[in-house]
Every structure is written in structure tokens, then in C-alpha cells.
Amino acid sequence: xxxxxxxxxxxxxxxxxxxxxxxxxxxxxxxxxxxxxxxxxxxxxxxxxxxxxxxxxxxxxxxxxxxxxxxxxxxxxxxxxxxxxxxxxxxxxxxxxxxxxxxxxxxxxxxxxxxxxxxxxxxxxxxxxxxxxxxxxxxxxxxxxxxxxxxxxxxxxxxxxxxxxxxxxxxxxxxxxxxxxxxxxxxxxxxxxxxxxxxxxxxxxxxxxxxxxxxxxxxxxxxxxxxxxxxxxxxxxxxxxxxxxxxxxxxxxxxxxxxxxxxxxxxxxxxxxxxxxxxxxxxxxxxxxxxxxxxxxxxxxxxxxxxxx
Length: 309
Known about the structure:
Layout: H1 7-15, H2 24-37, H3 47-56, H4 61-77, H5 79-82, H6 90-98, E1 101-103, E2 114-119, H7 131-148, H8 150-155, E3 157-162, H9 176-189, E4 194-200, H10 204-213, H11 219-223, E5 225-227, H12 234-239, H13 256-269, H14 271-275, H15 293-297
Parallel strand pairs: 2-3, 3-4, 4-5
Antiparallel strand pairs: 1-2
Helix pairs in contact: 2-3, 3-4, 6-7, 6-13, 9-10
């Protein structure tokens, strides 16, 4: 069974994603049978999971197969980001309490995109909250959105990072490779379309790092990036109208305090999923040598060298 889409999202699915409603059931069944035949991908998934990859692939079966394989393989190859994800671990609780990653309740004005707010400021402590842990919690929330949020899958995402008072100690961790890996997970791994990347209140060190890293991004993502160094939000409002920002920024899209509590509880409620996450390939059964992580991220990777013998 799959969820019914709203009228607005159904129109996007049909007109932009090539969805043919009376054919989705057979397409889903095709992918399920294909997965069963792959020794490393014999994993239980529900219809909604498979439909999400069909949608992000514009219903190309071959492209959907490639994206599913990449999604499940990367999760097996990057344990730093996809293991030890108990929401009640102190290091994860710290990031949830800080409200670093908050999907906002109201979608974009055309009722399509989900707006995701990232806050990298004085709510963070680089000594106890390294970027890899922030990265891990971000993927946990992305997993929930994949399971729950049709706006992300069909309409895409607008990602807004507010970096006011970002701790300078993160400079050593904020390398171009880390930026590339983070972007690549959204571009090539998760079945979400990234419509905009907006960064506001950039201190000089963040601004400089982003401008260097921007050269490593895909042309499509680079063209969709907006970086504002000053305290003016004018450029942001061109992408996300002010009324769709949280109350603390003059909008009406929830308060940061309430959203932090809501998403902390939601992640905690998914504890059993995170403890028994089966969304990963069995690399021992992969019939051929898997891709280097560079084939996915476009770099050799800063987490570790990921080639399986």
C-alpha cells in the first residue's frame, strides 16, 4: 500500500515525474522481484520505499535500480554516518536538543517543497558536537522524511542554513571534501530533489570555505546555491518568503523551540528502526567489486578509503 498524494503533489508527480498511476503497482512489483534476485539486496522494503525511488528516477526502471543499489550500498560502506544511531546516545541527544536540523511544517507556497532549516551557530559546541555527529543526525532525519514526507520525495527540498555565530573551531572540520560528501548524499543517494541551498549570516571563515567547496559541487547544485555574508535576508526571501520562516525570523512556520521538541520526539519514536536499520546492502554477497566511494562522492572521501576486497 502507498499513500495518496494531495492534488498539488499528484499533479507534480504526473507532469514532472512521469508517474502513470495505473502502472505504479506493476513497476513496484518489478523492482521488488529485481531486488530479490540481487544477492546483496535481498532486503525487505515496503511499497512506499520503492515508489520513492521510482519517483526520483522519473519512473525509469533502470535508473531506479541504480539509485536503490547506490542508496543501500553507501549505507553499508559509510559506518561513520549510518551506525550507532540510537537516539538516546548522549552525543545524539545533544544535537537533537540543539535543534540543528528542523524540517518546517508548512511547505513552499505552491504546496510542493519541504523547507529544511539548519542552524549552525552558538547552539553548537565543536568540542562535544563534531560535524560527523551532526552529519549522522541529519541522515537520521532524512530517513524519517523518506518514510513519511511526500513533499520531499515529490516536490523536493529547499535547504536553508543559518550560520550566525558559527563556532570558528569548526573550520578544521569544514573541509571541501566534507561539504562535497554532504551534498552528494542529497544529490545522488537520497531520492530527494534539491531545489535550493540557501546559506545566511555566513561568517568569513564559512563563506571562504563554501566558495572554495562550491567548485566541487555539481553545476546544477552550484547554480541553486545562494550565499549571503551580511545580516540581510533579502536573497533568502527570493527563494523562501519570510512568512514561511520560523516565528523567530518574522515568519509563521512554527517556533524553533516547539520544532526542536517535535523533531527530538519524532527521532526518539523511531528508535527501533535506527537500532535495527536493514536499509543496507550485504557487501559479502555483492557479486562484483563495488564502486569506490569516489564514484559516488566524486572524491576519495575523507571518512576512510572504501574499497572492499
